[in-house]
Amino acid sequence: MLIEVVIILLKVGVIFVALLTTIAYTTYLERKVVAHIQHRIGPNIVGPFGLLQPVADAVKLLFKEEIKPAKADQFFYTIAPMLSFITACMTIAVIPVGNWLEIGGKRIELLISDINIGILYIFAMSSLGVYGIVLAGWSSNSKYSLLGGIRSTAQMISYEVSLGLGIIGVLLLSQTLSVAEIVRQQSGSIFNWYFFKQPIAFFVYFISAIAETNRSPFDLPEAESELVAGYHTEYSGMRFGIFYLSEYANMITVSAIAASLFFGGWNGPILPPVLWFVIKVVIFLFIYVWIRGTLPRFRYDQLMRFGWKVMFPLGLANLIITALILVMKS
Amino acid sequence: MFGTFFPIFILFIFVVAVALIMIYLPELLAPKAKTRRKFLPYESGIIPETDARGKLPVKFYMIAILFIVFDLEIVFLYPWALILKELRWFAFIEMLIFIGILLLGYLYIIRKGALKWE
Lengths: 330, 118
Description:
- The structure holds two protein chains of two kinds.
- By secondary structure, chain A is mostly helical.
- Chain A is built from twelve helices and two strands.
- Chain A has one domain.
- Chain B is 66% helix and 0% strand.
- At the A-B interface, helix 1, helix 3, helix 4, helix 5 and helix 10 of A face helix 1, helix 2 and helix 3 of B.
């Protein structure tokens, strides 16, 4: 009884602290990689190789004055960044970071909770994330924020449809909604990874996920040449920092989901499972940064057309063909 | 022992606590120098005269309505995907009819120009 509570607290604590550290160092990774793509050096003053830069950033943001616009809706203005952050971090709960540990004859699964509706839970959280952004845009009472928030919302809900279609491709094969079970099904050989059975579903999922997290080349809500900073124009200090953190938290959870559903999660030879999981997530984060460093931004009409007229039919066609093959084989 | 949602609830408490700390810690640490101009919305140097929350293009409402229709479709596909191997052809043909009806609607909105942005 008491031991179980302690185990749960430890698991939640360790995974959450690991997530926060990863968020902090993803900002460092992004700045460093983008700098090298652009032939610069990037952060290199604070600590060796600039490794303490995220700490310096956090301290700086905490000591910055907070400016709340006079006409802003105070309640929603405060709650919007929190909503963004909470929904972004909660997704990690259903993702297995490793196989299991055996301590004193007790088997400890290395994930916070193996709920049997894991994928639905992931979707619920990513849908709720829209509220943070639309409320931030609306409550600031600034034209740039409002337009950025509305654009962002339209973009996120458009791509959420194809995001779902991509994941259903995997569900057809796995016949379960539990993420831990899906990862277990992919163990054994590299050819058991669902990526090789559902490559189109993976690309539909990953492209939609980049749009869903408002990252380049789909970072229209933050197109600084037209909208200043989009929905967080009026946010300053740590409140702005929270939006920044939740963007990176979203990137990490998207990478973790992609690694778990399509690339076998913690499965891999020789190295310990947790390390494999981390390697896969970091590769996806690198791809995120790489895309940002090399691709130009979409125009808004191109973005919407791409979402509704390319990704949606592609996802649907992949789904029907997969279902047809499955039914014929069984 | 505990339900499977209990650890998620614990995580929720952790996350909310961290979010609250991050929101309210600057109230103690950060300087406060209040001037009236600072609290105006930033609109590239132009002082705003009206409330920002005006009318929005109807396109955005269209997208929201279409999202509800198509996202509901996806929600129906989840249970279908999970039992397709058991129900086989029956489920497959039923879903083809369902998707076919939705595709008619999809073609209709494209012909009507609801997804056009210019």
